[in-house]
Amino acid sequence: MEFKNNNKQIGIICLMRLVLYCWCVFFAITLSSFADDTNKIYSNEFELPSLIECVRFSEPLFFCGNQVPLYRQDVRERLEKEVLLALWDRPQVILWIKRASKYFPHMEKIINQADLPDDLKYVAVIESGLRPHVSSHKGAVGYWQFMRPTGKMYGLKINYKIDERRNLFKSTRSACKYLKELNRQFDDWFLSVAAYNMGARGLKNQIKVQETDEFYSLYLSEETQRYVFKIIAAKFIMENPQKFGFIFQKQDYYPVFEFDKININSSRQLPIALVAKAAGVSFRTIKAMNPELRGYHLAQGKNSILVPKGLIQQFEARFDEYFAKWQGSDDGKIHRVRTGENLALIAKKYNVRLSSLIKWNNLSHRSIIHPGDELIIEAN
Q1: C-alpha–C-alpha distance, residues 376 and 380, integer Å
Q2: Rounded CA separation 304/290 (Å)
Q3: Alpha carbon separation from 17 to 5, 21, 26, 94 (Å, rounded)
Q4: HEC-encoded secondary structure of the chain
Q5: Are 161 and 299 in contact (CB under 8 A)?
Q6: Which CATH number fits domain 59-252: 1.10.10.10, 1.10.530.10, 3.40.50.720, 3.20.20.70?
């Protein structure tokens, strides 16, 4: 009797194990099917294309209205290289696209007003990544990477108080003037962009020596050849981000740069902190919106400053009050340099550190001051 009961218990246990096993198999199959369906949906929308697919140029490619001769094997190879290298740094491309949504509308408007091809905006992408404070080892600065002499030649103000190479609007207008002049000389946008990189004189010499003015047949420096292809690659990728696996939603893009412009006229150098206080924003916000400003003070005279959109009335209501208090306060003074004075003597006269004097006036130990210059002396 006991033996029969044991057999019955064993049978029940085996049956339960069988049921549990069947249930596990059913669950695994169901889960696998669900995962397959999910993966199909995911792959259809988000799977990165292979790198080989990314350099299959199925349609003609144009830059500034001129077709890129992809039928030439050497051209195709050089462009493939720059597309692949750009896609290798995917975070960089994401930042290009995000910053473009912020700055391109303003650049496009200026380029259109200058009656130039819209594609020229991609020059700024390769020059600076659309960042105002970028500088090269050669001394080029800003969105369009102007050298100091060229920037001044095309109307940009560059001194110890302001560097308009970092101003989005003024530097873009100057770049348009420069590019228009280059195209007047070369009558070809591929050559004009190459000259923007290497200089018009150097390119003309190469054209003369090599006896050809066809860009893709010229033997130029590696930097200049890659430069033109980088710009074309940036356009190719940024105009078709989904093709390369960059799936953006509306909230992913940076908002368009919006602002109000205020005009300030002061007989003295004016603290930027005072401007920020009147606008009701931080010092950092004013510096970020006006990257051309150097140091901690606005230059004497007329200044145009950008503040966040919608704050102009608030600024106008507060500024006069803050300005009057500042003028009557002991927040500091202005020293007019006299003949024979230097920075060390002036610092000693006011019993301040030389390093502080240099910092307040955005100078360096090598800076040269002249009689008549005005220096800020902050209160202790």
Answers
A1: 12
A2: 9
A3: 19, 6, 14, 54
A4: CHHHHHHHHHHHHHHHHHHHHHHHHHHHHHHHHHHHHHHHHHHHHHCCCCHHHHCCCCCCCEECCEECCCCCHHHHHHHHHHHHHHHHCHHHHHHHHHHHHHHHHHHHHHHHHCCCCHHHHHHHHHHHCCCCCCECCCCCECCCCECHHHHHHCCCCECCCEEHHHCHHHHHHHHHHHHHHHHHHHCCHHHHHHHHHHCHHHHHHHHHHHCCCCHHHCCCCHHHHHHHHHHHHHHHHHCCHHHHCCCCCHHHCCCCCCEEEEEEEECCCEEHHHHHHHHCCCHHHHHHHCCCECCCEECCEEEEEEEECCCHHHHHHHHHHHHHHHHHCCCEEEEECCCCCCHHHHHHHCCCCHHHHHHHCCCCCCCCCCCCCEEEEECC
A5: yes
A6: 1.10.530.10
Per-residue pLDDT reduced to its tens digit, 294-324? 988 888 888 999 999 999 888 988 888 888 8
Picking from 52, 183, 39, the residue whose alpha carbon sits closest to that of residue 119 is 183
Residue type at position 366: R
> Amino acid identity of 17?
R
Least confident span in 18-27, 60-69, 233-242: 18-27
What contacts 260, CB < 8 A, 6 or more positions away? 306, 307, 308, 309, 310, 311, 312, 315
**Cα–Cα distance between 290 and 287 in angstroms, integer?**
5
Buried b (16+ CB within 10 A) or exposed e, 350-360: bebeeeebbeb
| Band of pLDDT at residue 328, cut at 50, 70 and 90 | low
- Tokens representing residue 42 in the block: 């995911």
Which sequence spans correspond to the domains of the chain? 1-30, 59-252, 258-327, 330-380
Q: Over pLDDT 70: what percentage of the chain?
A: 86
CATH homologous superfamily, domain 330-380: LysM domain (3.10.350.10)
Q: Do domains 59-252 and 330-380 have the same CATH topology?
A: no
Instruction: Give CA–CA dist 66/231, Å, rounded.
Output: 14
